[in-house]
From TrEMBL:
Membrane-spanning parts: none
Domain spans labelled Thioredoxin: 2-70
Matches recorded under InterPro entries: Thioredoxin-like_sf, Thioredoxin_domain, Thioredoxin_H-type-like
Pfam families, per the entry: Thioredoxin (PF00085)
Protein name from the UniProt record: Thioredoxin domain-containing protein
CDD domains: TRX_family
Gene3D superfamilies: Glutaredoxin
Length: 81
């Protein structure tokens, strides 16, 4: 999850993201990347809007959700783990 503390959609998605992270903790690693602190990672993955969720499998992008879309995030997670 690429996020920023000042971004309202990021704050809205924090609880669902954490719930998914707990529920799927044995199948995947969930990370939060503060866009204000890790600008090099933001550029590497071409993050242009917040929140942005990337699903990476063995370093290859398998899915991307941009915006506060809990349903879409759940679908790409379930389809890839």
């Amino acid at each position: 999850m690429f996020w920023a503390s000042w971004n309202e959609p990021c704050r809205v998605m924090m609880r669902p993201f954490r719930a998914m992270a707990v529920a799927k903790r044995r199948a995947a690693i969930f990370c939060q990347v503060d866009v204000d602190k890790f600008k090099d990672i933001v550029e590497r993955y071409r993050v242009e809007a917040l929140p942005t969720f990337l699903l990476l499998k063995q370093g290859v992008e398998k899915g991307r959700v941009v915006g506060a879309k809990v349903g879409d995030l759940s679908i790409i997670i379930m389809a890839n783990i």
